[in-house]
Amino acid sequence: WSSDVCSSDLEGPAPAPPARSGGPLRKVRADVRIRRGPLQIAPSPGQRWLYTPLIESAERDLWVTAMKIDAGDRPLVHESVYVLEKLPDLSHASEKGLMLEGKEVLFRQNMPTNGRKFVAFPQGVAMRIPKGAALLLEQHLYPALKEEQASVELLLEEHKGRTKPRELLYEIVSSRDFEIPAGASYFPLTRLWKVPRDTWVVSVLPHMHQHGISMKAVLRRKPGAPAETIFSVPNFSFSHSRTYTFERPILFPKGSELQVSALFDNSPENPYRMPFDKPLRFGPDAERDEMGDL
């Protein structure tokens, strides 16, 4: 099931995304099938993370055009697939989660947390798993009071054809050094990304936690140029966060600037606010920390 389709109106605000996923429902050709399990999940009163190595070291380059994950019907905070230069130390990862970022992350793909966990990339574009790289599944779990078992099956569809596909790359626009005061409502956070090269943008993923209200991204193609709205999520919902795929890739010219603005609510009026009467800083816990990534 493809990600939601979002039109981009470069002359004004982006229209609201459709209520259901746009794009066709189709089968994944199972060129590579990987099974892992049973996996033991220890009980915990707080949120936990489950990391499952799907590929420890790829035997050859894999060009993936679609993938599907079957990990059961357990409710998840979020689920991501990482392509990494090498596997990290996972011995204590379940307690606090791993902050996977930097050069060791070759690619990241967030999976839908409800419905069919299926992602298909645009025609002629593929996710590359280089020879020797690792593929790691990260599952952010809700609290559970008893031990659970899980199993994972991953289907990868490889690129077929004589023409080499374009490689899908991953870029994060983020801020780590911020503090949202206790009681603050409509607290703004703005980040700027200076585009290092001509870049065709296929999709965007706004990522905030329980205190996020909205996110918007505008592009200036050169200094002094008018701001072009790329996308806008005016009513962000953490439980329904998703990847938005544009109807057509958008060119970000080299030297252009993308400004990402988000609003947060840490006031008593926010029913999801935790912990009460405390400032929020960057961190992985969806209830006690915040993020403002694109």
> How many beta-strand segments?
21
Oligomer: single chain
What's the helix-strand series?
A: EEEEEHEEEEEEEEEEEEEEEE
Count of helix runs: 1
Report the C-alpha radius of gyration, rounded.
Answer: 19 Å
Observed structural traits:
4-stranded antiparallel beta sheet; 294 residues; disordered N terminus; 44% strand; 1 helix; mainly beta; 21 strands; 6-stranded mixed beta sheet
Summarize the structure.
With 294 residues, the protein is an all-beta fold.
Walk me through what this model shows.
The structure is a single chain. The chain is an all-beta fold and 294 residues long. 1% of the residues lie in helices and 44% in strands. The chain is built from one helix and 21 strands. The strands form six sheets. Strands 2, 4, 7, 8, 10 and 11 form a six-stranded mixed sheet that branches. It has a four-stranded antiparallel sheet with strand order 3-9-5-6. Strand 16 and strand 17 (228-233) form a beta hairpin. Residues 1-24 have low confidence and may be disordered.
Detail the topology: elements first, then pairings.
Blueprint: E1 4-6, E2 32-41, E3 48-55, E4 62-70, E5 76-84, H1 93-96, E6 105-111, E7 118-120, E8 125-129, E9 134-141, E10 148-158, E11 166-167, E12 179-180, E13 187-194, E14 199-204, E15 207-208, E16 212-220, E17 228-233, E18 244-252, E19 257-264, E20 280-281, E21 292-293
Parallel strand pairs: 1-18, 8-11
Antiparallel strand pairs: 2-10, 3-9, 4-7, 4-8, 4-10, 5-6, 5-9, 12-20, 13-19, 14-18, 15-21, 16-17, 16-19
